[in-house]
Amino acid sequence: MERNVASPQKAALYGIIFWFVLYLLFPISYSYPFSLLSISLLFFSYLFFFLGYNIGGKVKLLKLPIDTSKEKKGLFYFFFMVSFFSVLLILLDKFYIRGISIGNAVFDNRGILKNTPPSLVGVLGNVFKAGVFMSIYLYYKLSIKKRVFIICTFLFLLYFILESFVLGSRSTPVFYIILTTLILLHFGLIKIQFKYLVLLGVLGVIFFIILTEIFIARTQEFAQTRERAIEHILIHGSYLDYTYLDKEFIDFVLSIKAHYIQTFFVGVASFVVYYLHSVAEFSYLIDHFDSDAQLGSHTFFVISKFFKIIFGFYDGQRSLEYIPRLGKYTTFFGEIYMDFKYLTVVFMFLFGFWQARIYKAIKVKNHFTLIPLILFFCILNFVFPVFNLISGGNGIYLIIGFLIISFMYKFLSCIKISKRSNIQ
Is the pTM of this model over 0.85? Predict the structure, then answer.
């Protein structure tokens, strides 16, 4: 039985606390008011999520034909190959079919992807990207001893991180690293001890500085100089229309002479604004969204895109004219609001209920192959106040991929057992 599994409900609660700590500690101001309607919708969305989660945790599980996951070491190698082919498919889609290049500037690569319709090859590669995280999980769960496989799997993960850098993304690599860290924590491979925390802290700061350097370099593509790029990030960034830093803090950051220390504080400043701006943007969205409800086609766009590609009528572009301020994060709930308007609270109830059912299946029925999905939900729920990790960061691909791979593991395990029974 799986006992020590991270709780998605607690992750959502910790996410609220973390947001308020940043809000109280950092010199952030808002020029767009938090409306009573938007705050009420945020409150009831959280309330109904927790309500759905608690009800879902109390309802008895149904007995299914494939009811438990069996520990079959041989299946690790199958899913290792799934993760290997996902890397090949994504490489083929991005660099050959759609034509991005390591030598291109970030915005050039983004423009290529925006103007080139996705292929079925890329969709399948992204869905089975979940196989990389499942392979890491199964390697330790099934006690595989051949280190070459875990080294290769981490290299696959490294590729996804480097690919994100080529596209100028900071958030996606962070989520991948956090998810991998949670898997390692689950098996006790990372200890919550002072020396490990110090090491993780140092590595985290180094990685944070690297991400910020990439962000500054990306901004420098149009700002020309590093100094102008930093000023743009601190004063004119896309998240600073209604959320801004106090002038004294900006002057302090600009006055720092040490290159990497300045980079660190630029990163801190942009992270805090990035993290806190979305509630103001959510208020703006509620006040200005006058389009029809998108009925799931906004948040779950990847699913409709998949069927359009399959049946051959993908139009190459996604119309986003209904969004009042395109490219701004509006918390998790803003995306859901555009899909379901005031039925957002109903969606949150069902979403909480569903997560609780998966969590209970792990705890009671030993469905351990769903643990990577639950760990992903922990990250998703933690950043509820910031943005929607279903539609962003390729999250919907991971959710679908984890569900498919978990079912495949159970199905293949069941077939293997049946064959042995027939032989006997």
Answer: yes
In whole angstroms, give the CA distance from residue 8 to residue 378: 4
Residue pair 49/346 in contact (Cβ under 8 Å)? The answer is: no
d(CA 114, CA 318): 9
- pLDDT tens per residue across span 375-409: 999 999 999 999 999 988 778 999 999 999 999 99
> Residue ranges of the alpha helices (H) in 168-258?
171-186, 194-223, 226-231, 247-255
Tally the C-alpha atoms within 13 A of residue 252's C-alpha that lie toward its C-beta: 12
Res 308: pLDDT = 66
Please return the burial class of 373, using the count of CB atoms within 10 Å of its CB with bins 0-12, 13-18 and 19+: buried
Is 314 within 8 Å of 361 (Cβ atoms)? no
pLDDT in tens, 287-312: 999 999 998 888 988 777 666 666 65
In 3D space, the residue among 366, 281, 283 whose CA is nearest the CA of residue 325 turns out to be: 281
Strands (E), 299-362: none
User: What are the distances in angstroms from CA 229 to CA 144, 203, 241, 288, 333?
Assistant: 47, 25, 17, 31, 31
How crowded is residue 403: how many other Cβ atoms within 10 Å of its Cβ?
16
Angle, CA of 29, 35 and 38, to the nearest 5°: 110
Determine the pLDDT at residue 147.
Answer: 93
Residue 29 main-chain phi, psi, to 5 deg: -125, 160
Answer for the pair 46, 349: CB distance below 8 angstroms, yes or no.
no
The percent helix, strand, coil of the chain (3-state, each to 5) is 70, 0, 30
Calculate Rg over the CA atoms of the chain.
22
Write out the two tokens for 96: 């050959």
